[in-house]
Structure formats: C-alpha cells, structure tokens
Design brief:
CATH topology of the largest domain in chain A: MetI-like fold
Number of strands of chain A: 2
Oligomer: heterodimer
Order of helices and strands of chain A: HHEHEHHHHHHHHHHHH
Number of helices of chain A: 15
Largest interface: A-B, 40 and 48 residues
CATH topology of the largest domain in chain B: D-Maltodextrin-Binding Protein, domain 2
Largest sheet of chain A: 2 strands, antiparallel
Radius of gyration of chain B: 26 Å
Shape of chain A: flat
Strand order of the largest sheet of chain B: 2-1-3-14-6
Number of domains of chain B: 2
Radius of gyration of chain A: 24 Å
Strand content of chain B: 5-15%
Number of domains of chain A: 2
Structural class of chain B: alpha/beta
Largest sheet of chain B: 5 strands, mixed
CATH architecture of the largest domain in chain A: Orthogonal Bundle
Number of helices of chain B: 21
Distance between the termini of chain B: 85 Å
Helix content of chain B: 40-55%
Chain lengths: ~300, ~525
Amino acid sequence: MAERTAKQQLLRDIKRHKSVYALLAIPLIYYIIFKYVPIFNGQIAFKKYMALDGVLGSQWIGFEHFKTFINSYYFVELLRNTLMYSFGKLVFSLPLAIILAIAIYESNRPILRKTVQTLAYLPHFLSWVIMYGILLALLAPGDGIVNDTIKLLGGKPIDFLTNTDAFPWIVILSDAWKEMGWSAIIFIAALMGIDPSLFEAALVEGANSWQRVRYITLPSIRPVIVIVVLLRLGTILDAGFNQIFMLYSTPVYSVADIIDTWVYRQGLLEFQFGLATAVGLFKGVIGMFLILGSNRLVKRFGGNSLF
Amino acid sequence: MKKQYFVCIALIALLSFGSLPLFSQGTKDAAVDGPMTIDLWYGAAVTEAGPPPADWVGFDIIKEKLNIDLKLTTLPSNESDQDVKIQAAAAANNLPDLFMVRRDVLTRLVPQGLVAPVDDLYEKMPTRTATHYNEVSRNHAKFGGKSYGLADPGSIVKNEGLLIRKDWLDNLGLSVPTTTDELLAVMRAFTFDDPDGNGKHDTYGYGAFQEVNNYEAWPGRRLQPILGAFGVEGTWDMTSDSAGLNILKPEFYDAMAYLKKMADEGIIDPNWLAYKKDDFRAAWKQGRFGIMREQNAAFAAQSNYAPFDKNFPDGEWVIMDPVEGPKGHASIGPYTAGFRIYAISAKAVEEGKKDKIAELLEWMASDEGYFLLGWGVEGVNYTKDANGVPVANGLPNPDLAFSGPVGQTVTQLRNMVFYNGDIELYARYPKYTTATSKKEMSALEVLRKMQTKEWTPAVGSDMLPIPNADLKRFYEQGLSEFITGKRTLTRTNWNTWLAEFKKLGGQDWNDKGVAFAKENNLLNE
C-alpha cells in the first residue's frame, strides 16, 4: 500500500512538474541512445570482429586486444603522455579558469567585464583546425610572430611545434587559452550564488580584496571546484584527441602520441575495431575507478562528494 | 496503473524507433519495377566545389536510360578521413554499392568478405575496358587470384618536377645546380644572399612539407629529389638485384646526412615540418623559398599560378634536372602507375546490383556519359573548338562554364570517366596568359617537360605490404629525430637504430615486400 502511495506521489510530482520532466527527457533519450545502447556493442573488445558476422556472430578471443594494447611497443609512452597532458591541463587550465572567473566577478567595470568575457569565450568556438592555423602564424620558426620577436631581440628562433621540449607546453597552454573562458562559466555561476551579505560584512570588518577572495570567495566555490575535478578525473585518459591530432607531427611523436591518437592509427586506420573498443573500455574502467576512488576520498575528508 | 504502463510502452516504442537506425545494416531492396538505387561514394574532382546539384541533368538521364536512381556521396578529400569513413561503414556492414577506395583499405576489406570480385565485369563493359583497363590495372587490385576493384586510370604519372627560381639565380649570378654540392651552394645563396633583393633575411633554399605514402615513406614526396641523388628514392628499391627497403641501404645514411646538413644550416624552410599542404603552397606563392618539388597543375594551372604572378611579376620558376649525387645517381623520385580503385560491395552483389553497376560504368564510358560527366552539357557548360576539344568559350552564361566554380559542380564525377586521353589534357590544361606579368603559361607543357626528366620506375611498389602502425611510427619518428637533432646522426647511432628497427619488424616487412614483389613480377632488371 505504501509502495503504491509512493508511486502515486511520483506520478503526481511528474504531472505537476511535467515541463521540467519533458526537458529532462531530451538528454535522457540522448544518453540512452548514444551512450547506453552502444555498450551492447562493447563486447567486440573481446571478439575478433568480422563485419559480416556482426557483433553477436564474431568469434570470442578473450583479452587478446587488451594484451595487444598493453604489449604495444609504445604502451608506457602512450600512457605517460596521456597522463601528462590530462594532469597538465587540469593543473594549468583549472586555476586559470578560477582566476578568470574571480577577476570577472570582482570587476566593477561592466564594459571591461563583458569585453573580457567575450574575448575569453571566443576561442572555445574555434575548431582545432583554425587554432592550428593561428598557432602556426604565431609560432612557426620561419616567420611566426613570436619567433620574429625573438629574432628582433637577438635570440635564436625556437621550433615550438616540432621541438620535443616545447611541444607539451604548447599543447597545455593552447588548451588553457582555448578553454579557460568557457570553463570559467561554471565558476562564475557559483560565484553569483554567494550571499552578498558576506562580502558586505567583510568590508565592514576592513577586509581587503585579497582577503575577501581568500576567506569568502574560494571557500564558497570549493564544492564546485571539487565536483569539476572529480568529473575531470573520470576522463583522465582523454587527453584531447582533436587538439593533439592537429598539432602533432613525426618529430614530436615521443611526447605527443597519446592513447587516442594511437587508437586512431592502430585501430581505425588498420580496421581493428575490436582493439579500438578494447582501449575505449580500458579507459572507461580506469576513469570509473578514479571517480569512485576520489569520490570516496572526498567523502572521507568531509568534502562535497558527487554522490 | 494502466496509464503508467501506457506511458512506459510509449517511451520504449519511442526509444526503439530512435535506436532502429543504429542497428540498421543499410540494406535496401531494389524496387521490383521502379529504378534500382545505386549508392556511389566518389572522390570529388574539384574538392573546393560542391557536389552535383539535385537537379543535375545527369540524374534524369541515368534514370531514364538505365533505370538507375543514382545516389551520390562525396568522400572527404583527405585520404585518412576517406579511409576512416569507408572503414566505419565497412565495420557496420554498411558499405555503399560502388565506392572509391585506396588499395591499403581494400586489402583490409577483402579478408572480411565485404567486397565482391569484379573479374566478370570487364567483359560486360567492352567500351570502358578498352580505354580504362589493361593487364597492369587488372593486377593492381588482385588478391588471391581475384580482382576486387576496378583500377581506373588515376593521376598522370611523372606529373611533378623539381623547380627553381630562375630570377633568383639571375639576381645572384648563379646557374642551375647539377650536383648535390652545387645544390648546397645555391640553397645557401638563396638563404643568405637576399636573392629577392628586399634587404630582409626572409628566404630559404628549399621548401617542402611531410607528404608520405606507402611508396614514398618519410621524409616523403617533396624531398625525393634529394634521396634520388643518393639512389635511395622511394620506400622500396624495385631492382631485381638489390630489391628491398631503401632505408636498409648504406646510401640512405648519406642522404640523411645531407638532409641534416640542410636542416642544420637553415637552408631548408624551417617551417617544413609544421607545414600542411596548403601552407606549403601558400609559402612558395609568397616567395619564401627558391627550390621545390611541385605538381604540374598545382604549379602552373591558371588559378594556382595567379597569386605568385601577382606577388612577383618578374618571378620565374624553371623545371630543372634532378641533381646528381656522389655516385652519379639522379632522380625526381619513384613513379608508379596511378590508379583510382572503384570497388563493389558484397552487399550490392547480394542485392542483385552488379550488372546494373556494370551498365552504369559502361554508359559513363560512352560518348554521352564521357562528355556529360567530364564537361557538362554542350552549349551550357562547354563548347567544342575546331579540334573537338571542350573549351569554356562562347557560352551564353559564362558562370556555368565547366572551369568555373558553378560549372565545376557538374563535373565532379569526371575522374570516373577520364583516362588521361589527349582531349582531356588539352581541355584540362589550356594555354593562358597570366594577368599581371602577361606570361604565356600551359600546365600541359609543364607536364610534358616534367615527364622528360629522370624518374625511377617503381610500378607496383604501392602494392607492397605496409608496416603496422607502431613500426611506421618508429620509422618516421626515428628519421625525423635524426634530422632535427634529437638523435645524433652518427654511423654507430644509425646502425643501432636500424638494428632496433629490424627487431621491431622492419626485417620482416622487408622480406615480405621482396617476396611479394618477386611473386608478382614487379621487380625491374
């Protein structure tokens, strides 16, 4: 009887908030079709996939594809590069996004604020193809603006895009440049939710700008920062295929080749879809454990966990 | 409760309908009486122009005469993207009926049973077979004794050349280099002696970019004339007494040392490793370097030459002979028989479409199909000159000319009918006078001259086994690291690296390649 009442309550809630549920239905359907239904096809990670035999008819081969990946000549390097870029982007982009969000929030000049916001968001909407063109114009050793300046100052040009020392920095910093503004949105939204009376009280107590940021702003948006970090950990083995695929070239393979670019060459171009799926599954499982583990850690230390 | 169940069922039904296309294998039964649908994935003849418009007269003619409803899909212009698109469709057993495909991809599709043999089609297409296929082309897509693709004539062979800025040579009082030593001297002069006289250090000797394929491995096509001077042009040595991977020859080290010298001295455009094709082509038009290997039309076709002509009215490129190396060897690079392969999916054959496809291809080779697909409609997109060559003159609406941006859309399938005959070449590469310098130019004359230079026969080298992705990376990364200095280029280091290359599968790749070449009589005397 109690169960029936709960169901009726649920139905009543759905009816009452039908417009909200209708909105929810759109992403829900998207996720079911594009994220959950394909899980069924994930079984080809354990099969010698033959298109004519289909997903169900292909022969089971156990963990062969996983072994191929792990025994790959470049496995350690691929894993190292992938983690280097993922953590690098996390360490550089996230603080920059937070700083930008706070700077925009603290600014009391509306025109300046809007201009900075627009300029910071803009690169997010450019594809990496366009970004590559811009980076080439800036960084090319022959006639890039940066190298022209270096030469003007008497320095020696640096081949930023083909030098193994410079390339990782180019990847991390160009990603920060492209995504910093867009990533800041969530923090700006969190900042908007801070009770203004806290700032007023701090002003009355004589707190300066830095003290307000340190003792009010940062603690207030800490839950959002934790959630963003947790979500990023789930995709830690996705180091940004589009960016690196556009930027990398043979001289920098040793520091540029990541799991996804390897999968593109070895899996998609070599028609080894089972192998590509196995690597995808491997990444997903690692990501899941990282999310679960870090969520538990956050919970244990009294932070705002995801679930 | 009933309402709740109804909502659940409706939701499931909605999801099921939404998911149906995901599971669809794309099979379509031909209508019993109506036209048969043929899905064709083609490579656009002009990648900058759009596909044939929906009201293209060709669709109606093909439907009316052949009872075929032709559905066209343009393949991406980039080869890797093309491969991914085809392989993704193949993985879903959803290949189109007829599609253009690279041989490397075909080698992966054949064992999967996704493409059908086409040996029986040659007899069914007598006109097309006479102009398009010969013994070499039939063998090009042969696997296990059966031909799995119609290898149509592709790009014209030997259509590239080594070009040098004659105006720069004249300004510096130099002559065209004939040896690798002279080439070094000219490259240095082009880099450090201000050949364009603008007072700036903004020019380089040689220009290139990484353009790699299975028979012109890293550093790729643009640097083949340098490798050619050392007798190691191309991925493979296709001579019977020394067949094998060129990288395993001692002369390859000498070529690497030469390339490294070019890089270290800064006499090759330092952007070459970062350039994509378009950047490279923009660079020579901006006068950044004075020596390059370029394709005839990319250099001399009217629209391609125009920016250079505008920037440098007094500029002049000349086609030079490949320079001779220490042992007297010289070559622009290896050449193969260029083919475009069209394959028929096994699914299309199961659906009874094979004969209809043959009918379509045969019609394309008829006069009607040839001119319609090649140049459009006479009087609308082209007229014929006194020699019967299609020209873009005297049209009521010049915007619709086959050579213009609008008219080009109706010639997108021309690569399916062209076979590099004289009419095509005259029509494709007409003589013209440049807008600024008023020079008379002809990409055809350039082509003919390029073809007279020294090339290395390597027919069939594009059919030899390809390395796996890890070995390919090892090869390319290793060579580029020697050039950029990340690895020190010494004999000892080179031999150590070669030993590792062989261990990783390089020796096996070499042995399989030689065995395949011998088995298929591809080696030259």
